[in-house]
Amino acid sequence: MSGIILFNKPYGVLSQFTDERQGAPRPTLARYIGAPDFYPAGRLDFDSEGLLVLCDDGRMQARIADPRYKLAKTYLAQVEGEPDEAALEALRRGVRLRDGITRPARAERIADPMLWPRDPPIRVRKAIPDCWVRLTIAEGRNRQVRRMTAAVGHPTLRLVRWSVGEWALDDLQPGEWRWA
């Protein structure tokens, strides 16, 4: 039986246990998780937050992370501007990025999800409104959600992965983890 850990990765934490970069060390998973032999199944960017699934079984890890298995990942994206139905429909059909057209996504505007405060907070511009979009994708290209929202004219200001497959953050706070 494989062990699964669900971790709410805070903004500004690497999705790995060590920092290979020279210079000032950046926070890593080692600061939060003391479970030996567990490794992230996929990644979340340094400037993204939310659900990171870790496991102790290489096959399970690959199955969770590999886009061939089309495991749905849901993100809450705070975007600049207010996407209209045409922008949302473009996300639903798939958008052209430098590395090709994305698979269709589920996309909808949502009310402010009232998440924990981000440190540092996003930049707010009085003249430009923002809103929240829920996007569910079944692939995992580098910075894909950010590139998708930018491609339809609404750059992402804050990105939180809410769920991966059957696992969700629910009430897990930033920096906390639990067994699945």
What would you note in describing this structure?
The chain is an alpha+beta fold and 180 residues long. The protein has 2 domains: 4-67 and 169-179, Alpha-Beta Plaits; 72-164, 2-Layer Sandwich (Alpha-Beta Plaits), CATH 3.30.70. It is built from 3 helices and 11 strands. The strands form 2 sheets. Strands 1, 2, 3, 4, 7, 8, 9, 10 and 11 form a 9-stranded mixed β-sheet that branches. A hairpin with an 8-residue loop joins strand 2 and strand 3 (49-55). 32% of the residues are buried. The model has no long low-confidence stretch (mean pLDDT 95).
Summary keywords:
single chain, 180 residues, alpha+beta, Alpha-Beta Plaits, 9-stranded mixed β-sheet, two-stranded antiparallel sheet
Number of strands: 11
Order of helices and strands: EEEHEHEEEEHEEE
CA-to-CA gap between the ends?
12 Å
Radius of gyration: 16 Å
Class by alpha and beta content: alpha+beta
At the fold tier of CATH, the topology name of the largest domain is Alpha-Beta Plaits
Structural shape:
globular
What is the top-level CATH class of the largest domain? Alpha Beta
Averaged pLDDT: 95
Indicate the low-confidence ranges by residue numbers: none
Tally of distinct domains: 2
Q: Summarize the biggest pleated sheet.
A: 9 strands, mixed
Task: Give the helix level as a range of percent.
Answer: 10-25%
Please identify which CATH superfamily of the largest domain we are dealing with. Alpha-L RNA-binding motif
Secondary-structure arrangement, i.e. CATH architecture of the largest domain: 2-Layer Sandwich
Percent of residues in beta strands:
25-35%
